[in-house]
Amino acid sequence: MRYTGTILLGSALIIGLTGCYADVENKLNRCVSRLGAVEAGIAKKQRHSTDMVAVVANLKKQLKRYQDQTAFLTRRLEALGEKVGAVTTMSAKEKADLAKKLAVTRLRLAQMEAARAKAVARLGKLRALLKRFAALIKSGKIQVKLRDGRMVVVLSSKVLFAPGKTFVKPLGRKAIAQITTVLKGVIGRQFQVAGHTDNTPMRRGRYRSNWALSTARAVAVVRLMIKSGMPGGQLSAAGYGHFSPVKPNTTKANKAENRRIEIVLQPRLDELPNLKSLFEK
């Protein structure tokens, strides 16, 4: 009777493992289907901003990461199933250990699915923001990029400031007001306004270094955003000087691109996945 009960227990565990594997496969299929729908929708908007392609590429990377994780966990489930099939007699402790491993693996799969769902939700919010920025992007006043998993609104210093100055031009003030109208509707998020310069040394004027100039320009933009209705608690200002160029400072065109203001959507801690634990055995 004990032998028969053990065989039945092993069979039940294998059935459970098979069901878990099928569930993982179904989730992956749904993820791929959703990605196809996202790509189809984005394709219609590409005439407004080629930066949308970067958003899709980022989602594909996230999907690939989730697929790798799922494959790893699936192999572990299969290995557990093989152990059950190979053992005909197990002690109570062995049964308890196996059940615990199975429960942990199922929990990790659930956590992975939750992380994937959050990534899809974030993509939806980014798409909504990009749609609201479409007119400014089309006019050439701003660029919207996805860098290191963060949305970045880029304004050229040429639109905002005269050389070496921090007073914002009328056209720049209008652009900042339009950007603020969009961003102040994003509740509970932090934005960093970052000033950047090229590597040309400051030889005259009020500001004696690119650090000082870039910081003062960021503060000037923050003040205008607050004046346009943005809550001050959602904003911070930073100056990077010439130490974070987007292109080498080797040509006039490259230097012009490096002179910029960036408004960066800051990630929340709950959006930073801790994936290391998923690969621990």
Largest sheet: 5 strands, mixed
Treating each run of at least 4 consecutive H or I residues as one helix, how many helices?
8
CATH class of the largest domain: Alpha Beta
Total domains: 2
Cα separation of the termini? 34 Å
Q: What share of the residues lie within helices?
A: 55-70%
Report the CATH topology name of the largest domain.
60s Ribosomal Protein L30, Chain: A
Low-confidence stretches: 275-279
Order of helices and strands: HHHHEEHHEHEHE
Number-wise, the strands total 5
Strand order of the largest sheet: 1-2-5-3-4
Radius of gyration: 26 Å
Shape label: elongated
Briefly, what is this?
This protein is an alpha+beta fold and 281 residues long.
Notable characteristics:
alpha+beta, 8 helices, five-stranded mixed sheet, 60% helix, 2 domains
Mind explaining what this structure looks like?
- This protein has eight helices and five strands.
- It has helices at about 1-45, 50-85, 90-130, 135-140, 155-160, 170-185, 210-225, 250-260; strands spanning about 140-145, 150-155, 190-195, 235-240, 260-265.
- It has a five-stranded mixed β-sheet with strand order 1-2-5-3-4.
- Helix 1 packs antiparallel against helix 2, helix 2 (about 50-85) packs antiparallel against helix 3 and helix 6 (about 170-185) packs across helix 7.
- The radius of gyration is 26 Å and the shape is elongated.
